[in-house]
Amino acid sequence: MAESREGLVVRPMRPEDVEVAEQISAEAFLQVDRATRRATDPEPERRPAPRSQRWIDRTSSLLATDAPGCWVADLDGRTVGMATSLRRETLWALATFAVLPDAQGGVGRPLLEAALQHSVGCLRGMVASSADPRAVRRYQAAGFDLHPQMVLSGRPDTSAAPSLGAVREARPADRELMDSVDRRCRGAGRGADHDLLAAMAPALVVETRSASGYVYAADGRVAALAATDRRTAARLLWAALVTATGDVEVPHVTGANQWALQVGLAAGLTVRTEGYLGIRGMRPPAPYLHNGALL
Asked: 91-99 and 78-88 as β-strands: parallel, antiparallel, unpaired?
């Protein structure tokens, strides 16, 4: 247990904390969205009920598999902050980290330090950061190199799409293949996190003698993508765009993944910057589009 600000106690998360943690996360990220929105952007809204339930399910799963990485902060008996993190092989990742807007100051640092205890012995670390200056400073101080991210969005023009060739629907037997690709890209497989990703979106897979990869995508919104080479990654991203019926969103495109930017521009998508990928002890993963929570 860590303690710093008067009346503050950072303690391990319990199952009964999960729903409160979701409310903290939703309110904190809504505040960030409001602070960073442009004049032309629509007013941000709280995450809808289905996404809230997926958040609760994901956090409950992480609490079951990675309890030492899941913490909450109580201030004068009121839960005001939360952090969840995971260890996969030699990789530690911060899944979610949030403090209520009216409790900022003296809460975030001890909460993050508690979650970082779960990273001891890991060779690599990853975190998806918002553009909030407080978050940026906190992650940089914790030793993470920050790489700006781009988001591709809009109604795709798929007339330039190549032949999808060997792209097919994923099967349960593909999990080891997918973990192998992740080890090549980020140094660690996902294991049971594939079940959490599958709850967000179905997966497509490429497997040939010379290349392999996968993408989780639902109606053009990409949840995660990894491949052994840029050409295969581009084909998988095109596959996600081709199956879309309306506007799409491809988040978490770092500068190391120019292939994704090239696909997005060829499809007529717009580009904006949004947040950072923080990494420690590793290079920016490529060809790879990380997931915001499961990295």
From this structure: antiparallel
